[in-house]
Structure formats: structure tokens, C-alpha cells
Design a protein that fits this description.
The complex is a heterodimer of chains A (165) and B (109). Chain A has six helices and no strands. With 165 residues, chain A is mostly helical. The relative contact order of chain A is 0.07. In chain B, helix 3 packs antiparallel against helix 4. The radius of gyration of chain B is 18 Å and the shape is elongated. The chains are: A mainly alpha (165), B mainly alpha (109). At the A-B interface, helix 1, helix 2, helix 3, helix 4 and helix 5 of A face helix 1, helix 2, helix 3 and helix 4 of B.
Chain lengths: 165, 109
């Protein structure tokens, strides 16, 4: 149980570092650490499939994509000029108000049963695969079309226009 | 693995909701206070991931695997979104030589 609180502390700590780090490369590295703590959360819930997918897709693919884009966009000058203090404070207050609203709503809803894994097979690849390919076969196929169209769109957007170049 | 899972037994659901809403609001604050388009994009990823974690926690709480299937779909969607979004950012950089979002104020009233 204390493992959860320790990992939760780490996730919050690293996610604060993501948005406060001056250098975007450091931000990305902290984001990788945050996602790693999320993977540990999934393992604690025995959601093994999600843990692996989070590890491979997020940490392995998406964040490497971020790093490569940052490499293409060569920001030698350390970082962007910060927003004015007023905008920073307004943004902080806005986010905090959002958090307070959610926490207050949570207070209204008093019951809090512990999260207990009744069926240890719940998050295993075998069980999820059966559900994915029986009940959610159509959304699964549609998501493959989505990924294909996203790939085509990304290539189309990122290639230089031959007429203007 | 079994002992590891045993150790988390008994974390109240409210604490998961609290953790996820804190991380979600950190993402919101990040979107509001940063000017670098890539960092804003990363904050959006942070929000998506906190929702994923909460969905998985509810799925375990209810003993229903549908939530975890939805997390899988959200991850597929996030991958597509990142590919297109980063392509747009690269294109913006090529046209304006900057990824500062304050340069993109032509839609301002």
C-alpha cells in the first residue's frame, strides 16, 4: 500500500518538473520518467497488458518521436522567453481552481471502497484479447484505419511542398 | 507479481481519483503557462495519461475489463494525434522559424 503512495508522489513530482523545466529536452526526459511511474501503477493493478503497451508505445515510440521532432526543430537558444508573470499566475490559479472543484466534488461523494482486484486474470493479455476480438472487433478495425489515415496525414503535412520549395 | 499486487490491495478509490485529478490539473496548468508548442503538446499527453490511469483503476475496481480495452483505444488515438500534431508543429516551424505559440496570433479578434 505504501508503494502506491511512494509511486504516486514520484508521478506528481516528475509531472511538475515536466511543466517547469526550462529546457524542452529536460521536459521530455522528465515526461519519460512520469510515464515510467505510470507503468508501475499499471503493474500494481496487475494490468499487465496496459503496462506493456504503455511502456512500448508511450515510452518507446511517442516520446522518441517527441525527441526527434525537437532534434529537427533545432532550438539552440536555450528556451522560449517565459510568459509574463501575470499570465503565469492566472494560469496557475485557473488550474488550481479546476483541481479544487474536482476535489470538492469528490468530498461530496463520501464512499470510498478500496480498489481490490477480485479476478487476478482481469488485465492479462489473454483475457483482454478475447474481449477485444469479440465485443470490440469493429472499433479495433476502425482504429487501424484511423492510424493509417494519421500516418498518411503526417507524411503529407511534414513533406515539403515541391512547388514552393 | 502476486505479492506486488497484494501490496496495493486496500488503496481507496478516492486516492486514485485524487492522484489523477492532480496530474490532470498539472497538465492544464502546463498548457496555460508555457509558450513552447512542444511542451504544450507534452502537457496534453500528461492529461491523456492521467485519464488512462483512472480508467484502468475504475476497471479494476469494477472488475470489468472493458475499461482496459478503452485505455488501449485511447492509446491508439494518442499515437495518431501525436503523429499529426508533431507534423503540424514541424510545418509551423518551417513557415515561421519558431514554435512560440504567440507568433500564431492571426486568428485573434
Amino acid at each position: 500500500m505504501s508503494t502506491f503512495y511512494f509511486i504516486a508522489f514520484l508521478s506528481i513530482f516528475f509531472s511538475i518538473l515536466v511543466i517547469t523545466a526550462k529546457n524542452p529536452v529536460h521536459s521530455i526526459l522528465y515526461l519519460i520518467l512520469t510515464f515510467f511511474t505510470f507503468t508501475i501503477h499499471y503493474i500494481l493493478m496487475n494490468a499487465q497488458f496496459l503496462a506493456i503497451v504503455n511502456f512500448i508505445v508511450y515510452m518507446g515510440a511517442i516520446l522518441v518521436l517527441f525527441l526527434y521532432t525537437l532534434m529537427l526543430i533545432n532550438l539552440n537558444k536555450e528556451s522560449e522567453p517565459r510568459k509574463s508573470n501575470l499570465v503565469n499566475i492566472a494560469g496557475f490559479i485557473g488550474g488550481t481552481c479546476f483541481l479544487i472543484t474536482i476535489v470538492a466534488a469528490l468530498k461530496a461523494f463520501k464512499v470510498s471502497q478500496p480498489v481490490i482486484l477480485h479476478d487476478p486474470n482481469l488485465g492479462l493479455v489473454k483475457n483482454l484479447g478475447k474481449i477485444l476480438f469479440n465485443e470490440y472487433l469493429l472499433p479495433f478495425e476502425v482504429s487501424s484505419i484511423l492510424l493509417l489515415s494519421a500516418m498518411v496525414g503526417a507524411v503529407l503535412l511534414a513533406t515539403k511542398d515541391p512547388k514552393t520549395a | 507479481m502476486e505479492t506486488l499486487t497484494k501490496t496495493m490491495q486496500g488503496v481507496p478509490l478516492n486516492h486514485y481519483i485524487l492522484l489523477c485529478s492532480i496530474i490532470f490539473s498539472i497538465g492544464v496548468i502546463g498548457v496555460l503557462i508555457r509558450r513552447n508548442a512542444i511542451v504544450i503538446f507534452m502537457s496534453v499527453e500528461l492529461m491523456l495519461n492521467s485519464v488512462n490511469l483512472l480508467l484502468a483503476a475504475f476497471s479494476v475496481y469494477r472488475g470489468d475489463a472493458t475499461g482496459q480495452v478503452f485505455v488501449f483505444f485511447v492509446m491508439a488515438l494518442a499515437a495518431a494525434e501525436v503523429a499529426v500534431g508533431l507534423a503540424i508543429i514541424v510545418m509551423i516551424y518551417r513557415n515561421t522559424n519558431s514554435i512560440d505559440i504567440n507568433v500564431l496570433n492571426r486568428l485573434k479578434w
